[in-house]
Amino acid sequence: MAKNEKRKLAEQVYQLCQQVPQGKVTTYREIAKVLGMKGYQAIGQVLKRNPYAPFVPCHRVVKSDGSLGGFKGCVIGKEIVEKESLLRKE
Prior knowledge:
Layout: H1 3-18, E1 26-27, H2 28-34, H3 40-48, E2 61-62, H4 78-89
Parallel strand pairs: 1-2
């Protein structure tokens, strides 16, 4: 994927994340589906580099099975505890 395509994808993902209401979640799969792609992991890679947090609430994106998935590039540790805490506060 070219640099411009990656940038365009990232902006689309961030726009969709902003639409997720406080107290609600969406999935990597749903975001990919809206964008007409099957690259669920690509969505995670974009969110891992989210420069707009917390304005773009990437913590509201979870795995399709309801588990938390990753946060700040990690799938275990204090980052996941932080993601869970942010969701509980909402």
